[in-house]
Write a structure and sequence with these properties.
Helix 7 (124-148) runs antiparallel to helix 10 and helix 9 (200-223) runs antiparallel to helix 10. It contains 12 helices and 4 strands, in the order ααβααβββαααααααα. It has 293 residues and is mainly alpha-helical. 35% of the residues are buried. 61% of the residues lie in helices and 5% in strands.
Length: 293
Amino acid sequence: MRAQHLARQIRAAIRHLNPHQVRAAAERPLSIGLAAVSAENLAAMEDFFAPPSISRQRRWELMRVLHRMGEPGAPSRFDLEIYEEGLPCPAGGFVFYRQAPQRTVEDILAAREDLGLALARHFPSFRQPVAQRIIRTIARENAAFALLTAVPDIVPSLMQFPWALGEFASDTAFITMNQVRMAFLLAAASDREVGYREQRMEIASIVAGAFGWRALARELAGKIPFGAGLIPKAAIAYAGTYTVGQGLERFYRLGYRLTREERKAVYEQALEHGRRFVDYLLEGTRFREASQL
């Protein structure tokens, strides 16, 4: 009966998600302006964003997004303006570091998070950085929510959630829903199909895994006195979500999942990261002092 009740909660929580919004953000049209001192340097910039190794059709599609600023037919305004290193770069523009182009990618994502999904869908060089940002963000949200359900006065000042917290009957339902949301975002960033039908196998795996996470988290929380079990419980929420995310990213990028050994290694590393994140959330609180008695 408890399992059936939890399953109903999870189904109700997942109904909050709208894959159409994710798809729309990923399919947003883009216009990117490039500036360099020579045609050779412009070609080098284009080769980074639209590598010659991709199919001719795909490269032609990407070249329709990239424009050489100032040339006839180029738009008058761009979503992004990217300048060769050494050229004057106006406010709002970005420098293309030819010897370290991933630095340019990170600079763009840090300043224009709103374009992350669309950039990842279009350009291979953005996919893994965007995917890793998605995974870390959702893992932190889930760890914070697991903690917030027991210590409600700690987290709201540090993190904002996209849904009303009171609507969820259990942290497991929220965490599962957020992992499904992560699956939508990762698929979109990987230029894969997004939706309940299109990702039914991934969603089924996430929902099945929710019961294992719940059992482990409850066991740990019950064995440690003074409520300190909530710390590993929240860390497990982080590690479980992070491991799911890395498995999905691998699947969408390469077509196969993490092995059992790889999942174990990723989970153990993520568990330590989760503990440090929870320590950060609890730093300076009375709950932290009590948990150390």
